[in-house]
Design goal:
Largest sheet: 7 strands, parallel
CATH superfamily: Metal-dependent hydrolases
Family: Belongs to the PHP hydrolase family. HisK subfamily.
CATH class: Alpha Beta
Distance between the termini: 9 Å
Protein name: Histidinol-phosphatase
Oligomer: single chain
Pathway: Amino-acid biosynthesis; L-histidine biosynthesis; L-histidine from 5-phospho-alpha-D-ribose 1-diphosphate: step 8/9
Bound molecules: zinc ion
Pfam family, one: PHP
CATH architecture: Alpha-Beta Barrel
Shape: globular
Radius of gyration: 18 Å
Keywords: Amino-acid biosynthesis, Histidine biosynthesis, Hydrolase
Order of helices and strands: EHEEEHEHEEEHHEHHEHHEHEE
Length: 278
């Protein structure tokens, strides 16, 4: 079993050290994990931080290298115990991030870079505190249109290895808009899945939705469409923000994949995918 979406206490919204996560991984029988701390860079927001020993500092290449050192040490230590440890990040995408991101990650030997849309118009729709500010301005159809337009730019930027939690807007959108939030138009999704395939980026199955609303990201309807559109590269992760959530619902997620016609997931090494049969 593998888990490719994990936040340690270096992310400002998460807890747990690299060692705590690695020990937990061994305890629950994972064979490979990839740390993917947040990399938020939007200058119009105040969340562009990385945390060391409880002290926040602006996200930078130096900070990323410091994090790498810690993760590489764990990689060496846990290799002997049968656990493979990879170094990744989860980048909050906004239009115009590309050059800044490229500059920060250059020479950092990342294995894996996930792209996520957390914010629209600099408002975090994945935050209980902020989402209403955005949702009050748009109806559900407009929200989804705007969200997927940003996703389209993310995919087209050629900067990411996998697309995180593709329908994350439902997390708080479901309470705000009701079930209509599930009705993302088929033509939008067909277009997005075609772009994912053409640009060779992976689609993430994220189990955090299970913990929050008893439904994976992506929802069953979207998973079906993804398979119909020929998506082949899949990554899988718990999006854990504390060690207790590591590996949560992964067994169910693999079943979910199998039911929808998928039989491989990707691991990454220095940004190169390799498909693993399960
Ligand atoms: Zn995310
Ligand atoms: Zn995450």
């Amino acid at each position: 079993m593998i888990d490719y979406h994990i936040h340690t206490h270096h992310s400002i919204d998460a807890a747990g050290t690299v060692t705590e996560y690695c020990d937990r991984a061994l305890e629950i029988g994972l064979r490979e994990i990839c740390f993917t701390n947040h990399c938020e860079l939007d200058p119009k927001r105040d969340d562009s931080f990385i945390s060391f020993d409880g002290e926040r500092e602006p996200f930078s290449r130096e900070g990323l290298k410091r994090l790498r050192k810690e993760i590489f040490e764990a990689r060496d230590k846990y290799k002997k115990q049968g656990l493979t440890v990879k170094f990744g990040i989860e980048v909050g995408y906004y239009e115009g991030i590309e050059l800044r991101l490229q500059d920060i990650i250059e020479g950092t030997e990342l294995d894996f870079v996930i792209g996520a849309v957390h914010c629209l118009e600099h408002i975090c729709i994945d935050s209980s505190k902020e989402c209403k500010k955005y949702f009050d301005q748009y109806d559900a159809q407009q929200l989804m249109q705007n969200y997927f337009m940003t996703v389209e730019h993310l995919i087209g930027s050629n900067t990411f290895d996998s697309l995180a939690h593709i329908d994350v807007y439902k997390k708080y959108g479901k309470d705000h808009y009701g079930n209509v939030i599930n009705n993302v138009p088929r033509d939008i999704m067909n277009h997005i899945f075609r772009l994912i395939k053409e640009n060779h980026i992976a689609l993430e199955i994220n189990t955090a939705g299970m913990r929050f609303m008893n439904e994976f990201y992506p929802a069953p309807r979207l998973m079906k469409m993804a398979h119909e559109k020929g998506i082949e590269l899949i990554t899988i992760g718990s999006d854990s923000h504390r060690p207790e959530d590591l590996g949560k619902d992964l067994t169910l997620a693999f079943e979910y994949l199998r039911t929808n016609g998928f039989n491989t997931v990707c691991t990454f090494d220095k940004r190169k995918p390799s498909r693993q049969k399960f």
